[in-house]
Amino acid sequence: MKLASFDIFDTTLIRKCGNSENIFYLLAHKLYPNDKAKREDFIVWRKRTPQIVQKKLKKTELTLLDIYTAEGVTSFNEYNTQTLINKELETERENLVCNPKIFELINRKRNDGYNIAFISDMYINSDVLREILEEKCKINSEDYIYVSCETQARKDSGAMYLHVKNLLEPVIWEHYGDNWYSDIKIARKNGIKATHIETHNNTLEQRLELLS
What we know:
Shape: globular
Order of helices and strands: EEHHHHEHEHEHHEHEH
Helix content: 40-55%
Number of strands: 7
Number of helices: 10
Radius of gyration: 18 Å
Structural class: alpha/beta
Distance between the termini: 35 Å
Strand content: 15-25%
Largest sheet: 5 strands, parallel
Oligomer: single chain
């Protein structure tokens, strides 16, 4: 098998709002448009909770359900757990666009006979990510998606690459991502040909926002 794998966030998908934590600010405004104090409380809670829950549960990676059933969520009991999760996913979807550079590269690799995989250290499950990638980037149903909240293996530790390697047994493997450590250094350490994708620039973000 020839495999071309792609990081998802900040590589295949770009957030129009920029930094991932900006999603929490947008979500807070969606939940509490007329209550500044509640917005500020929610933002602090959402940013701090994953680290606290991760230590408590001793998990490599959390799911959104882990986060939204954590201590302190009752402070926002105007909404039930599933509504909070849905609102966050809705906010993510609204702010994600496909990186046209990666879209072209995926199609080129597919035409060259590569199998396509998407790999992410993330708390959003693969079913939701597949829906988003199908909508935004027109990926194929046979494309693979591996996410750390399901595999409990992360790219930045190398465990995700080992997990994928054991499952797919690629003879040739190329990986593309924006993070110099987890996508490049650790991938290369595991014998993968890794290519850095530069997406952190205002010009690209502005152009993508205009195209959306």
